[in-house]
Write a structure and sequence with these properties.
- The complex is a heterotrimer of chains A (about 170), B (about 575) and C (about 280).
- In chain A, about 80% of the residues lie in helices and about 0% in strands.
- Chain A has six helices and no strands.
- The mean pLDDT of chain A is about 80.
- With about 575 residues, chain B is mostly helical.
- Chain B has one domain: Up-down Bundle (Cytochrome C Oxidase, Chain A).
- Chain C has about 280 residues and is mainly alpha-helical.
- In chain C, about 60% of the residues lie in helices and about 5% in strands.
- Chain C contains eleven helices and four strands, in the order E-H-H-E-E-H-H-H-H-H-H-H-H-E-H.
- In chain C, strands 1-2 form a two-stranded antiparallel sheet.
- Chain C is elongated, with a radius of gyration of 38 Å.
- Classes of the chains: A mainly alpha (about 170), B mainly alpha (about 575), C mainly alpha (about 280).
- At the B-C interface, helix 1, helix 2, helix 5, helix 7 and helix 18 of B face strand 1, helix 1 and helix 2 of C.
């Protein structure tokens, strides 16, 4: 709930400032729709469900596999974002301080990316703990919480995509 | 499992309760205990102690401000020092006195009232306290590390709501604004985690039989408060993150030259800022709702209405923020909407006031100190509400916005309302926390001097507002008719200081020499009075079971228990 | 987390005290401090935060650390709750001696409307009579009443006040009618609560006198023209006529039972749920 409120404010700021930048680059010129990144992130939401399912059935191997795939997809998303930013910064010269679009874009997407990063760390802790055999039945609740968090991060991405890449590019 | 209460009953009848022993230990052991503890009661007391700790510098700043404007053309503080003083006074009082006080009371009382052993996440609780505390320290470190003139420190000086263009690098070079935004960011983390903790505790750790509909009103109002914290503190944090990005990395959020909007900052700030008022005042309402019935010897009048009114206040408070911004030039629809919402919020507040009066009506009122503060609260909060409604009328606000009338209004809310309720709560719960009663005679002195000082300070400020004195001016010329009222106000401020000192003396005196309280000194009805004073680390030997809204009444009056009427 | 506070024979399990949360918080503060001083401070902060975080994690994983807190010695425990020697007597519905009681039978609201209209008519007749006798025009009081809503009437002279004005007439009739109905309905609510003896005295004379006293200071603001021209003796006579006539009509109307004595089910309209056994 807290995080939702936090994101809401950044989304509002983005919407408020759409089309108010006074100097280029403008979003239409530099942004591309993040097909690949979205694919990575949205599919990771599915794999985390599969992983949880395997855990409930007691298949540790399957759990490790799907949990690992989830992590890989999350990391792939981060790498995608990093290359996108690299391109924007060194190719298009868009930084946080270039214009309003830069400020709102980097803060919103960056906030989301930092949440993905936190999620990855949490997933990693669970994976390591599980591989070393420390995960017991009483921890299932926590694993469920972490997967909820991952779904939440996904949901936020859906909002971010809508705002930044669909509304913002018109 | 052995039944500890059975042995307890046998012994308890023979022995008078022993005086609460202080932990005998060295100073280092004590500090180590503070750092290590995860006990909700100790953390609650630490929150409260922190609140008083920061109350002192904030109060000193207040008296400096009042000294400066007591007479025209005064030069006790220069303009820079004056701006720093008003900023630090406002920030510290709101974030580092009132907020920790709310969290301290919630921490201490809520688990006891709902019959729990501790908070849901005890370690997170400690983390919340320490982030709040370090945030406060960080802000005050600006007096040392802020880059001011001649090697002196420089505190933030853009007022407690840090309006946008003023906080940009161009107008506020140096780091003092960063101390403000970073300090509040840190403590914001603590407040939000603390609020989540309290919410989870209330939802998951109520003892057997304690349905939401039987929950004490203080706990109810804390619950609504914590919802507000979780929902409305993040906008402030987000805005402060933007400010930090702007000041360190050159982002353009609030910079008009790049198309940014300074008004957006105001919106973000007040989306937080107005619910914040209710974050502070709802627990105060909760205290009043506990104290008034106990000292009127009647159950609270209209319990369901009280709960409904609190929830309503919570909802409506989300839609009133822009009444702080009537003068920035909004379109008439927005002005009408926010004026209307502001007037509407007085309805649930009015319901509460009537319910307290109805509780007192026909009751057998005991004029103990907590009740005195409650009665004063009722008068003062009514006036604060009325001036609030006046300011909610937009054309009236255009005339008086940013004048001393506004200062008088919100100090009536915060001092006359919240601080008085905090004092009531202190006199009420101090025996529970310490095991000894606060002194009645000193309490009377405290009450009367503080009340007189309060009215002497803030009543004239209403008139100063009408006479056109703007807020945040560090001095003024002679012959405007403001001299006498300002002088009165300053005298009042010092009187309040005397009252506060008497209170502190009372606390110290009572901790050593006060009358032994016993478990239940006020003949009260909620669960915190069922355990010993001070409560043991685990709160209850055996978790209680509840069948009505007044569990202790049921035990004291087995022939006529409350649950018969539910 | 449900295993956090388990009970044992000799004590209660509580979380072990730990310094890690404090260290994490300190780390966060130092990271922020890095912004305003130098990055070295931030590095120390990150380090402390990491140490705190890891320590905290190890505190919780794989099992949250607990310690057994023994029960305090019996002498320090809470004394058992004593049964209060006081007896409780409940308020009985409608019992005498209490200042507040529910009226069990009330007048219909409709009687308030008819009473208000009757009283208003009586008042109007008397007022017009006054106009005819002293100002030689029945329109005089009507125009004065309308002056509250008509700016032109406010500054009118006596001659103008004596003439017929359609707009003034409409305003006066409307406001007089609405106010009469409202006051009449107030009567239906108030009359059962007045002292039982001399009801005509309280309702007919005292209440009109009270509201005349309340109107007296208000007239200067609401209707300055009326305040300037009014004859207070006749005004009071008119008010009392309203009180007597309106009060009489209301008083003579039939009373109906309130729902106060009904059961909750009946009050909510679910009559079928109430059976003989319930009583």
């Amino acid at each position: 709930m807290t995080e939702s409120a936090l994101f809401t404010i950044f989304v509002v700021a983005y919407l408020f400032y759409i089309g108010k930048s006074l100097n280029p680059p403008y979003p239409r010129e530099v942004l591309e729709f993040p097909w690949l990144g979205s694919f990575f992130l949205f599919s990771s939401s599915a794999t985390v469900v599969v992983a949880e399912h395997r855990l409930k059935k007691g298949e540790r191997g399957g759990f490790h596999l799907w949990w690992g795939i989830t992590m890989a997809l999350g990391a792939a998303f981060l790498i995608y974002t990093a290359t996108e930013w690299y391109h924007l910064i060194y190719h298009d010269g868009l930084t946080l301080s270039t214009n309003l679009f830069g400020s709102t874009f980097y803060s919103l997407v960056g906030l989301h990316a930092s949440h993905v990063l936190v999620g990855l760390v949490l997933l990693g802790i669970i994976l390591v703990a599980s591989l070393t055999g420390n995960i017991k039945d009483r921890h299932h609740e926590h694993i469920e919480m972490i997967s909820w968090y991952w779904h939440f991060v996904d949901g936020i991405w859906a909002v971010v995509v809508t705002v930044v890449y669909i509304i913002g590019m018109q | 499992m052995a039944n500890p209460t059975s042995s307890l009953k046998e012994v308890g009848t023979e022995l008078a309760p022993a005086p609460p022993g202080r932990e005998h230990g060295t100073l280092t052991a004590w500090i180590q205990d503070l750092i290590f503890t995860v006990d909700h009661k100790k953390l609650g007391l630490m929150y409260v102690g922190m609140a008083w700790l920061f109350f002192i510098p904030a109060g000193i700043l207040a008296s400096l401000i009042r000294t400066q404007i007591a007479v025209p053309n005064n030069h006790v503080l220069g303009p820079e020092a004056f701006n720093q003083a008003i900023t630090m006074h406002g920030t510290a009082m709101i974030f580092f006195f009132a907020m920790p006080m709310v969290f301290g009371l919630a921490n201490y009382i809520v688990p006891l009232q709902i019959g729990a052993r501790d908070m849901a996440f005890p370690r997170l609780n400690a983390f919340s306290f320490w982030t709040t505390f370090f945030g406060a320290c960080f802000l005050f470190l600006s007096y040392i590390f802020g880059p001011g003139l001649y090697g002196m420190g420089a505190a933030p000086d853009a007022s407690w709501f840090a309006l946008a263009p003023l906080t940009s690098k161009a107008f506020s070079p140096g780091n003092n604004i960063d101390f403000w935004s970073l300090g509040l960011l840190i403590s914001g983390v603590g407040s939000v985690t603390g609020a989540v903790n309290v919410m989870v505790t209330i939802f998951c750790y109520r003892c057997k039989g304690l349905t939401l509909y039987r929950m004490p009103l203080f706990t109810w109002m804390v619950l609504v408060t914590m919802f507000l914290v979780v929902m409305f503190l993040p906008p402030l944090s987000a805005a402060q993150i933007m400010l930090v990005l702007e000041r360190f990395f050159g982002a353009k959020f609030f910079e008009a030259q790049a198309g940014g909007s300074a008004v957006l900052w105001q919106h973000f700030f007040w989306i937080f800022g107005h619910p914040e008022v209710y974050i502070l005042v709802l627990p105060a309402f909760g205290v009043i709702s506990e104290v008034v019935p106990v000292f009127s010897r009647k159950p609270i009048f209209g319990y369901p209405m009280m709960v409904a009114a609190s929830v309503m206040i919570g909802f409506i408070s989300a839609g009133v923020w822009a009444h702080h911004m009537f003068t920035i030039g909004m379109d008439s629809f927005s002005v009408t909407f926010f004026a209307f919402a502001t007037l509407v919020i007085s309805i649930p507040t009015g319901i509460k006031i009537f319910n307290w009066l109805a509780t007192m009506f026909g009751g057998k009122i005991r004029m103990e100190i907590p009740m005195l503060f409650c009665i004063a609260f009722l008068f003062q909060f009514l006036i604060a509400g009325l001036t609030g409604v006046m300011l909610g009328v937009a054309p009236f606000d255009w005339q008086l916005n940013d004048s001393y009338f506004v200062i008088a209004h919100f100090h009536y809310v915060i001092v006359g309302g919240i601080v008085f309720a905090v004092f009531a709560g202190f006199y009420y719960w101090y025996p529970k926390a310490v095991g000894r009663m606060l002194d009645h005679r000193l309490g009377l002195w405290h009450f009367w001097i503080f009340t007189a000082g309060f009215h002497l300070t803030f009543d004239p400020q209403h008139f100063l507002g009408f006479l056109g004195m703007p807020r945040r001016i560090y001095t003024y010329q002679e012959g405007r008719g403001w001299e006498f009222l300002n002088m009165l106000s300053t005298i009042g401020a010092f009187l309040q200081g005397v009252g506060a000192i008497i209170f502190i003396i009372n606390m110290i005196y009572a901790a050593r020499k006060g009358k032994i309280a016993g478990d239940d000194p006020w003949d009260a009805w909620t669960l915190e009075w069922i355990t010993s004073s001070p409560p043991p680390e685990y709160n209850f030997e055996q978790l209680p079971e509840v069948r009505s809204r007044r569990p202790l009444w049921d035990l004291k009056h087995p022939e006529d228990p409350d649950w018969r009427f539910e | 987390m449900d295993t956090e506070h388990a009970d044992h024979a000799e004590g209660v399990e509580l979380p072990t005290p730990t310094p890690w949360p404090m260290l994490s918080a300190l780390g966060i503060m130092l990271i922020a401090g890095g912004f305003v001083t130098s990055f070295v401070v931030a590095l120390v902060g990150i380090l402390l935060g990491l140490i705190g975080g890891i320590g905290w994690f190890r505190e919780l994983f794989p099992v949250p650390n607990h310690e057994l807190v023994p029960y305090t010695e019996p002498a320090k425990r809470a004394a058992p709750i004593k049964v209060s020697p006081r007896r409780i007597s409940h308020l009985a519905l409608g019992a005498g001696g209490h200042r507040a009681y529910y009226p069990l039978r009330v007048h219909r609201y409709s009687s308030g409307i008819t009473g208000g209209l009757a009283g208003g008519a009586a008042m109007a007749v008397l007022a017009m009579l006054y106009g005819l006798i002293f100002q030689h025009s029945i329109w005089y009081p009507i125009n004065l009443l309308a002056a509250a809503g008509l700016p032109t009437m406010e500054s009118a002279n006596v001659a103008m006040l004596n003439e017929f004005h359609l707009s003034a007439f409409i305003i006066a009739v409307l406001s007089h009618g609405v106010l009469s109905i409202l006051v009449g309905m107030l009567y239906t609510v108030l009359l059962p609560m007045l002292p039982a003896r001399y009801e005509w005295f309280w309702g007919g004379i005292i209440i009109p006198l009270i509201w005349t006293a309340m109107l007296f200071p208000m007239f200067d603001i609401v209707n300055p023209a009326l305040a300037a021209h009014v004859n207070w003796f006749w005004f009071i006579v008119c008010q009392i006529s309203f009180g007597l006539v309106g009060g009489y009509v209301v008083f003579k109307s039939q009373k109906v039972e309130t729902m106060q004595t009904w059961s909750l089910a009946a009050r909510m309209g679910v009559h079928a749920m109430e059976t003989e056994e319930d009583r």
